[in-house]
Amino acid sequence: MRELSIKRGQTGKFRSRLRRKIARSSDSSNSTTGRVPKVLTASRLVQQGLRTVLLVGMLVLIDIYAPRFFRYQNLVNILLQVSLLGLMTIGMTVVMIAGGIDLSLPANMAIGAVLGAMYMKSGGNWIVSCFIMVAVGVLVGLVNGIAVSRLKMIPFVVTLAMMTILSGSAVWLTNSLSISQIPNSFLSLFDASPIFGIPMTIWLGAAVTGAATVLMRSTVFGRWVYAVGLNARAARVAGVPVERVVLMSYVISGLMAGLTSILLTARLGSASANMGNDGVVLDIVSACVVGGVSIYGGSGRVLGAVFGAVLITVLSNAMNLIGVSYYLSLIIKGAVIIAFIAIEGRKGRADE
Amino acid sequence: MNSSRTVLRMEGISKAFAGVAVLRDASLEAWGGEALALMGANGAGKSTLMNILGGNVASDHGRISIDGSNVAIRSAREAALKGIAFVHQELAMLPTLTVADNIFIDNLPVSGPFISTADMRRRSQALLGRLGSTVSPESRIEELSIGDRQLVEIARALRHQPRIIIFDEPTSSLTEPERRRLFKVIRGLKAEGVLIIYITHFLDEIFSICERVTVMRNGETVWSSPMATVDAAKVVHLMLGVSAGEGRIREPTASPGGSLLQVRGLRRSGVLKDITFEIRAGEIVGLWGLLGSGRTELMRALVGLDPIDDGTIWWKGKSGLSNIAPRQLHREVGFVTEDRRGEGVHLALSIRENLALPNLKSLLSNFLLIDAGRERELAHAMIGRLNIKASGQDQAVGTLSGGNQQKIVFGRWLAANPRLFLLDEPTRGLDVSAKSEIMRLMVDLANQGCGVLLVSSELEELMRVCDRYLVMNRGSLISELPGSATAHELMAAIAESGNGNGSW
Question: Among the CATH numbers 1.10.10, 2.60.40, 2.40.50, 1.10.3470, which is that of A35-351?
């Protein structure tokens, strides 16, 4: 017994620090009684196979029809897009693993960008503007989180309403025009000046991916997120502060939206309400689902989701280069999501 | 009415699920105008027997006759046609529809292509009137109290002019006035000649409204007689039996340590009434009562899983007893819930992840990260200590046997060395050897100075380990018995409180 006792004193200070860092929480207590992953391996294999086939097939098609794809400039371009989509995908991944969904993420990103850009345009300091964008994102995440964890609202509905409010506000603030005249110091830092030939945005995307991977894999909070997403009731009995974990997942999602505001504003050199249009939500959810994040909560990986973002970006980019119309590309992306959810759904049922 | 009195006979009913016999040659007999109390502990076979009568389950053997002629009941619909109605414990209603809609949902009256609302309303009103209910047929179910909903459910049953009505634990979520009203309704039905079969865990109720009693135990009907020939203690005795059981694992300790936990005046409206008790170090306290007495609710309230309205909890910390909030107490104790698969473990996670979950903060390396090495060590040590049978620590817990899953539940808490364990039915659904292992583990913990509060439906199990018993009934602690109490004394203790007239 003694050998197992854990050195409490030693870790006490970390614990209290962590406790402060991680906020309070809910029981979505009607969640299922956990799933047994016997069949999971088989369908995971199918998903992985499908992903690989999709990617290889696309690359072959691209090679035949759009060899321009492989030019250095286009590859950097793709990595830039992957970084932007990837950041938002990571935010969504955390929320989805905790058993929720955040549809307001792109709208959150757009409103932050618009507010930050307006501040800069009015002569404000670009550093302060960055803080504004991140703060807006986190604040919106906090509101979503409180609504879901404390007020027990349904994530889908809350974030859908939040999306409408935020995009409405963004259009209203900008009169549907884009805000340009962004200071050069801001633009050059995030977009223009490459480090080792690679733009800052890509570095940041990679860094956040790494940090999020560690967060979800090796921190107490990460474990808690999985436990809550799998079975909130059991998590609560095990002493997991379920409400705080749920709240925090939305805050992280908001933080990712805020970071993306900065990078996307820098990349476009302007901000507009249209930055967070419906197509972006579709891309984020597609990336998560294709990347193996379960819509039922409790499973998925950050790296998988980022890989999903790569796949979706390459798909969009390739369709663009080949000359597929925007509308057809939406149809194809939608079909890809449905295909993956179909596999996921079969898995969900098989586990019951 | 007595000339054409309904007579129900069920004879030699047997049923096995997946090779496990749940009913063995069960029989019962009941007459119209009377209520038959069907009693039995959890798993005695009451529900299965009634589901056979209600057409939800087919029997393997046996014969059912109504008024002397054999009947075959192959579906719930056939049961309804033969005049058998079932008022379930879990009310299956459509909350957003109206009372009238719910009463007629399976056979809506139509005129042409349209539902004849007026007709439905009028007939609903008549049915509800028969029950003395003033609920409007227009109101939506979700606006009604549980008691009113139940009357609607009974009205639905009355629609088919039933001769036999089965009530399955109808009072478990009713308030006292609602309960009295239900009894009035049942007496009214009896006066109309309806045959009532009444299932409950509350002993006092059967003495006030039933004429006859049939007791089941382990799938057999062990007793049938007029109510007047038995008393409450006798019924408890019949329900629980007096199997010799195995000997004590540990004799009651005469000298427990100091007070670990004191609960004073704990109250939760409608659930727990003024609960006061203490648990001392090194003792195993049995929380003894029938299902629905508030045992589980007390456990959950103590650790903050359910809210409390009043009362304080005192916990022995470094500097003596001090007041503690339930949520904080949760961090100090090992808590085993009765719902192992739903709440005790994460079925999809591995053994290692399950064991680590409540202990993550103590497995941190520097940089606030979980130390994978220590996590593996913890799992390895627990698997060894509890003798968990698994292919390895990465095996998903959902694929383990029940006994091994329960060991994981214990293992989750053992690592933190809690001084108090709250155990709610820790051996439920386990085989004999797994049960013994869990019981021994409990005694080991007590020997090491831990306090244990143990809930179990099986008396002989409690009697193998308990140093003291707290007896619960209807949300109150009604008495306390020493570890030396006999089975007879323990059963008498639940029975004697049977006046049940307290109000919340």
Answer: 1.10.3470
- Give dist(CA B70, CA A153) in Å, integer: 54
Distance CA A12, CA A266 (A): 42
Which of the given ranges, A331-335, B108-112, B445-449, has the highest pLDDT on average?
B445-449
Domain ranges of chain B: 2-240, 259-496
Is B276 within 8 Å of chain A by CB?
A: no
> What is the pLDDT averaged over residues A228-247?
94
B416 — contact with chain A (CB < 8 Å)? yes
Q: Which residue has the higher pLDDT, A252 or A10?
A: A252
Task: Say how many CA atoms lie within 13 Å of A241 toward its Cβ.
Answer: 21
pLDDT at site B338: 86
Express each pLDDT in B260-278 by its tens digit: 999 999 999 888 999 999 9
Smallest CA–CA distance from B422 into chain A, residue: A237
pLDDT at residue A190, rounded to an integer: 73
Q: To the nearest whole angstrom, how far is the Cα of B49 from the nearest Cα of chain A?
A: 28
Angle formed by the axes of helices A302-322 and A72-97, nearest 10° = 140
Q: Domain residues of chain A, as ranges?
A: 35-351
Cα separation, A213 vs A306, in Å, equals 10
Instruction: Identify the CATH homologous superfamily for domain B2-240.
Output: P-loop containing nucleotide triphosphate hydrolases (3.40.50.300)
Determine whether domain B259-496 maps to CATH 3.20.20.30.
Answer: no
- Which chain A residues touch B if contact means CB-CB below 8 Å? 1, 3-8, 11, 14-15, 17-18, 33-38, 40, 214, 218-220, 223-224, 226-227, 230-231, 233-240, 298-299, 351
- Between CA A163 and CA A105 the distance in angstroms is 7
